[in-house]
């Protein structure tokens, strides 16, 4: 078990290095190929050549890509100093560089934005797991009935609706027409009530999409599991239906649900881009979209890295949880 | 997003066979049996009809717009209220001349733009699915058949790609792509890049399934038999393995198209899709963000267009899956 975790953690680190290298390569190499100078992105096109040269010196943009990459990676762990043009700045670890646009350090921007995205993803996740899994189980048990059909039609519609469309509809109805909610983010520490009421609509919108996906998945898996021999055995030895479903069938049903949950949560923590954009929530996803339209390479790199880390770590946690949930899985 | 879920078909496969006229026992190919199952699935057929209609709309967009609409990029300021920029008349300016109303502020014909939007949506969705299926099948078969270090390499690459924050990455990638590329310019470049990038990030999903299938098929007796009869690698790959992969690949490809429609629309919504003035549904929705309070129809119509398209493909895809794979063996 311990060896397994160490091996997986090592793989995680390698994976993150690869993702960083590729991202770094794309955002620093492609502008080079197409003749856009990253240094001029930093100071604007009108700046005089001397200023651009100074910035290039200071940020090390003239160095070979691999050398820049090395400085970037060591900066994350040890911090780094930017010297040149007569000034010197120290960027403490974890240093993700400075935004090209706002000249703020990237790391504080990321840590500012992360709680918003975590609040959104976490709250929605609770709702969609409760709603999606229970709908799926009920649908599977009542297979072929009206309840099942109604649930599955709703679920199919749910997975076919673009989330930004649902979001706009929800805003139009609940915010503007009825005035029930106020779509505005307030930090939890400031006012928990406002935090909650500002997030209710985004939560439900996001959860509706995922609940639909999870209901379909749970129903399909449950039906498959119910046909297994061990379920028949469990029934044959006189266990109550409650124990057969709740204990024996649920365990295997949760395995694929958990796999998907890991991937989905990981991806969402990296920024629920569409939901945040539609509801104007100042999370990581929104930061990424702004950064991209501003061609703010260091900030893009920061968000991509956070997102990739979240996905990889979530997958690792899921693999570890397998061993707990599914008695057939033993890690070695 | 709508990965094929192993769902058992509502109709028991035995029913289908039992319902067939009992006059004579005739041999039916597996494809024929699947087609019969599909024909009985009303939802899937409905989806199929809508898909067919959408394809026709996309192909004949210029004709349809000529007959029923106005050129998609023409401004009709006379249809707009000067004081708030909203369309004249109720429901976003819907009348017999402007079937879906007009766009706020510039008065472009929404019907024409929705019709032309179908072209972008379907073209990008189809071609990127083709890209994903081709790369995924080739690499999946290679990984599954040869195994060893090749398998490890391909599998690791797939894992790495799946760990990428895809949407984010696609937008970022599109933002650094130059305006002229591969002899194309303007919206052509964007479409080509969209197809390439969406397809590229889609192949690991296909690759995983194909690899798994190949792994299990490789050990089957009939492959063993072919090999012991002296069949070459080429024969086994193309004659023994590939035909058995067609079913899962078809199912996956059909279910990938709606996902791609959603991705293209999402990218356009975020401003990383085709460039104006080429119209796309996602782009219309992103414009509607500013105006939906005054003119909800301009938000509802493109939103419904995406919804109907995605729903139709999902219904058809679910139906094809159930027809080809009634036990849900995957």
Sheet with the most strands: spatial strand order of chain B: 1-2
Number of helices of chain A: 13
The level of helicity of chain A is over 70%
- Give the number of domains of chain A: 2
CATH 2nd-level architecture of the largest domain in chain A: Orthogonal Bundle
Percent of sequence in beta strands of chain B: under 5%
| CATH architectural group of chain B | Orthogonal Bundle
The ordered string of helix (H) and strand (E) elements of chain B is HHHHHHHEEHHHHH
The general outline of chain B is elongated
Radius of gyration of chain A: 24 Å
Order of helices and strands of chain A: HHHHEEHHHHHHHHH
Keywords (chain A): Cell membrane, Membrane, Transmembrane, Transmembrane helix, Transport
Domain ABC transmembrane type-1 (chain A): 114-322
Membrane topology (chain A): Multi-pass membrane protein
Transmembrane segments (chain A): 9-30, 116-141, 153-174, 194-213, 257-279, 299-325
Structural commentary:
The complex is a heterodimer of chains A (332) and B (330). Chain A has a two-stranded antiparallel sheet with strand order 1-2. Chain A has 13 helices and 2 strands, in the order H-H-H-H-E-E-H-H-H-H-H-H-H-H-H. Chain A is globular. Chain A has 2 domains: 2-95, no CATH class; 109-325, MetI-like fold. In chain A, 74% of the residues lie in helices and 3% in strands. In chain A, a hairpin with a 2-residue loop joins strand 1 (80-84) and strand 2. Chain A is mainly α. In chain B, strands 1-2 form a two-stranded antiparallel sheet. Chain B has 12 helices and 2 strands. Chain B has a single domain, classed as MetI-like (MetI-like fold), CATH 1.10.3720.10. Chain B has 330 residues and is mostly helical. Chain B is elongated.
Question: What brief labels describe this structure?
Answer:
heterodimer; A: 332 residues; mainly alpha; MetI-like fold; 2 domains; two-stranded antiparallel ribbon; 74% helix; globular; B: 330 residues; 12 helices; 2 strands; 1% strand; MetI-like_sf (chain B); BP-dependent_transpt_permease (chain B)
